[in-house]
Design goal:
Blueprint (H helix, E strand, L loop, with lengths): L1 E11 L4 E9 L2 E6 L8 E6 L4 E4 L1 E3 L10 H4 L9 H10 L2 E8 L4 H4 L7 H12 L6 E7 L6 H5 L1 H7 L3 E5 L8 H13 L3 E5 L3 H13 L8 H4 L2 H18 L2 E4 L5 H12 L4 E6 L27 H13 L4 E3 L7 H4 L18 H11 L5 H15 L17 E11 L18 E11 L2 E5 L2 E2 L15 H5 L4
Parallel strand pairs: 1-4, 1-5, 6-7, 7-8, 8-9, 9-10, 10-11, 11-12, 12-13
Antiparallel strand pairs: 1-2, 2-3, 5-14, 14-15, 15-16, 16-17
Helix pairs in contact: 10-11
Bound molecules: zinc ion (ZN).
Length: 478
């Protein structure tokens, strides 16, 4: 007997979009068949008529329950929203897996004086999410600062444990010098992981900040002049070159400029395993919006750019040069978010995890005619493949976890703050009209959101062991 049958919906499988029935037993999908062929007695039958049945969303980039720098907020104790709140919002937005971060970012660690063992740091982070997360979770491991030989020596062990991906920055105090990066890339490549990279050219950004300060132009709305297109161009190309020398796969988080899209495309055409992510609010807003009242609420580092950059990101998602959508989820209240008013002091990030799927559906499928299989790729499948969760996650097919979102393409919803479930008092999406919206979320066979209610539990989420497939790290495989 099946525990659950979803019938009557347009099911997006890796092969097709068709009216199919999905059979679930326990936590897994066990059958996908023609309508009426799964007429076994089921514990529950969900009528998905008129809905699109998609793999549960995978959020590849979120910062949950971490301290916000006091020079951004004027307060010592501000944290981004905790796992309960973030994963609750995610569940309402059709997301069933979230990738957050772990790593030792203490001052001593950044100076290379004392660094906790990677597996200890990982376990502490898991303990924070365990029993406090409505959806499944995993962590990119951040290596930062004067990353010592000892940490590089522990990369193999961490990958063995199921870490899958390491994150590095090329700017700010967490920046890793190139020599260290060379060694880290080589080690990650050797043991089958992938690099997640925040790439900005530190020297360009810091020089421009000083220049703008000198000219009295360092107001926050000029953010894009410091975190600029040239910086992205140079940094992406340096990282791509280093990756070529070390045979490592690279996942560029938050591609923001047309230069980034072009650099990724050129690398992929040469056969390099390089993948790009676009944040969903970069598909809507530009640096012009920074100047509006409370316009800095939309700011997420590096910086929103111009309309041709926004168009390049959407085009990249449509034609395959970019692979994933993400949010860089970093939720605070509006007070701390808007406390700073300079390029160096404005708080980054926003509450985005809940809106990514409906906004991306509106921007890409409704406005630009993206196919539904491609849409499944950019909200779930590609992140699962690139970051080592496939085929357990990211597909509606027998053997995969029964993580499913039902999206109603006819539900038109102009967002108000009350529609959203983050632990916050503002939304940059207030007034945005979503044409299509998630109406049911299923995690490993268990309905966790239905009829606008959360029916899952914060003990439902599990840490996911990851292993990146060889084809992902050897060629541009998605
Ligand atoms: Zn981030």
């Amino acid at each position: 007997m099946l525990d659950l049958i979803i019938q009557g919906g347009a099911v997006v499988t890796p092969q097709t979009v068709a009216k199919l029935d999905v059979g679930i037993s326990g936590e897994q999908i066990v059958a996908v068949g023609q309508p009426g062929t799964l007429n076994a007695v089921a514990g529950r039958v969900i009528d998905a008529t008129g809905k699109i049945v998609l793999p549960g969303g995978i959020e590849p980039h979120a910062h949950i329950g971490i301290p916000v720098p006091p020079d951004w907020t004027g307060q010592a104790d501000v944290m981004t929203q905790p796992p309960e709140a973030a994963s609750r919002a995610a569940a309402f937005g059709g997301v069933t897996t979230i990738l957050d971060f772990t790593g030792d970012l203490s001052r001593k660690a950044l100076r290379g004086e004392q660094r906790r063992p990677l597996l200890d740091v990982l376990e502490r982070r898991r303990a924070i999410f365990r029993d406090h997360c409505y959806i499944d979770f995993a962590f990119h491991y951040i290596l930062a600062g004067e990353c010592g030989f000892e940490s590089v020596g522990q990369i193999a062990e961490a990958l063995q444990e199921g870490v899958g991906s390491f994150k590095i920055f090329t700017t700010t105090e967490v920046r890793i010098p190139y020599g260290h990066l060379w060694d880290i890339f080589s080690e990650v490549a050797k043991h089958g992981g992938i690099m997640a990279v925040h790439a900005e050219e530190d020297e360009v950004v810091s020089y421009m900040i000083e220049k703008l300060k000198r000219e009295g132009r360092d107001q926050a709305h000029n953010m894009h002049l410091a975190h600029n297109n040239l910086s992205e161009d140079l940094a992406f190309r340096n990282i791509i070159r280093l990756a070529e020398h070390t045979n490592v796969g690279v996942y560029f988080v938050h591609t923001t400029a047309k230069e980034g899209v072009i650099a990724i495309d050129e690398a992929r055409r040469r056969g390099q395993p390089v993948y790009g992510e676009a944040l969903h609010h970069y598909l809507q807003f530009t640096c012009e919006d920074y100047k509006k009242p409370e316009g800095m609420t939309i700011h997420t580092y590096p910086a929103l750019k111009f309309s041709d950059d926004r168009d390049a990101l959407i085009d990249g998602l449509l034609d395959g040069r970019l692979c994933t959508t993400a949010t860089d989820e970093y939720t605070t209240y509006k007070g701390p978010k808007l406390f700073g008013d300079r390029i160096e002091s404005i708080c980054g990030g926003h509450n985005g995890v809940e809106t990514r799927i409906p906004v991306s559906f509106t921007k890409c499928v409704v406005e630009r005619g993206m196919s539904l299989p491609r849409f499944a790729d950019i909200i779930a499948t590609n992140a699962a493949k690139i970051l080592g969760l496939y085929p357990q996650k990211g597909a509606i097919q027998p053997g995969s976890d029964a993580d499913i979102v039902l999206l109603d393409p006819n539900l038109v919803k102009t967002l108000a703050l009350d529609d959203l479930h983050a632990d916050s008092d503002y939304s940059i999406w207030e007034g945005f009209t979503c044409k299509g919206y998630p109406v049911m979320t299923i995690l490993r066979g268990k309905v966790i959101v239905e009829d606008g209610k959360l029916v899952g539990s914060s003990t439902d989420g599990r840490w996911l062991k990851r292993k990146v497939a060889g084809d992902i790290t050897s060629r541009p495989a998605v």
